[in-house]
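Reminder: ligand-aware prediction takes two inputs, not one.
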Amino acid sequence: MSKKAYINWKQIQAAQAKLKASVEADPWRLSYHQMPETGWLNDPNGAVQFDGVYHLYHQYVPQDPKGGATHWGHKTSTDMVHFKDEEIFMSPDQAFDQDGVYSGSAIVLNDKIHFFYTGNVKNEGDHDYTFSGREQHTVHVVSPDGFTIESREVIIPHSAYPEGFTDHIRDPKVFELNGKYYLILGARRRTNVGSILIYSSTNLYDWEYEGVFLEGDEDQGYMWECPDYFNVSGKDIAIFSPQGILPTTYNYHNPHAATYLTGQVNWEELKFQVEEDFRELDHGFDFYAPQTFEDDQGRRIMWVWMGIGDTQPEYNNPTIARGWQHAMALPRELNFEDGMLKQRPLVEYQTLRGQEQSYSLTELSSDTLRGEVYELLIDFDERPKDFELQLRQDTSVTYQDGELTLRHGESGYGRRKRTLPLESLSQLHIFSDTSSLEIFVNDGEAVFTSRVYPDANQDKIQITGNGTGKVTYWDLATTT
Ligand code: FRU
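Here is what comes back for the chain with beta-D-fructofuranose:
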């Protein structure tokens, strides 16, 4: 009997081929960030280091820049800076994942990589928002090398999930602690509250449901996607992406957010006991569904989708017309310091630096600095009360009255302004790429991550205001 074909490769390849020319000609293709070859990219998946190779998988729809049933795209690197596009690792070609090989994670055991992901199936019929007629199976994949697949099996079928939840249960993250394995899943309760469920295993094959690891209330989002747990610098951290979290004065102004909680896990009861309230992980417009992994130097590294699902209605991403959409932000190292999670760009990216230009803030004239693809570091000695940096056509970063504000003009394509209260400004560390900006504040205390689409040759960098200190500029080499 012939196997049902869930995927039409001919159609996909033909549609992808049509996108290639406009993608390749697009001046907004990034210079040192990870992008889809063509089409759509979203969440990072299965991030792992194995035999000295860093693997990054990601949600990928090669033939359509607006998305669809996702595959796992695949990129590899030995230095975390230069990546190679590999063959698609998994496609929605099984009965249990025919509408998307959704997000998941990786863990290494006995020289094999074990992947866990959500097999998404959209059934006919009930398309109510909460009970969407979906099935979201947890699938286990074993691979000897990260390229080939030995087995791919449902280990927790949708029908086995606990009572009291909607059809939305997904995005397994697996981790090990004291020889035991844990799998957490993001879930949406019938009461529209976000939860994280936890399972345990001794062998990665047989899983037992242990209960609710962590849960919010009705103001904290109706669904928590892409949960992650780790301990860094002695602190237990839970990261997840709440959909529908209520905005506060300064936070949660994107349709969905990425947040973290600090606390302590009670490993007897498998409960995450929260110490500090929610904090938003980023203050720009494009940051969602982060995933972390530990590398062989013991660093906790975070990948994150530099984009967001359900973007603001006023935003019109101009790369869609050019055949692609979204990218990954720069990978960042996470540490818990001074009571907060700090994010710093991986030091490896310093290898892209060209010749250094260095000035004192006071000697800098308004016409000294120019660039499009660069790294800019401003270290203040005397901290400013009033400060403004203008860059990339019509974006500004201002510090005034104890608030730091990122403002986009027309090159934001509908995005305008995000503001953060900040007691004092000691450092701005900016990574500018052809169509992205990442602004690290006070040595990783806060970050604004955004896509921008300036016209060509909009390279003026102007600094005004008070404060003294040093400005260092580097052109950054391309990795593509
Ligand atoms: C988050 C998310 C995940 C899901 C995946 C589908 O952006 O919605 O919950 O697994 O994307 O592409």
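The chain has two domains: 9-345, 347-476. The helical segments are 9-24. We will return to this case in the review session.
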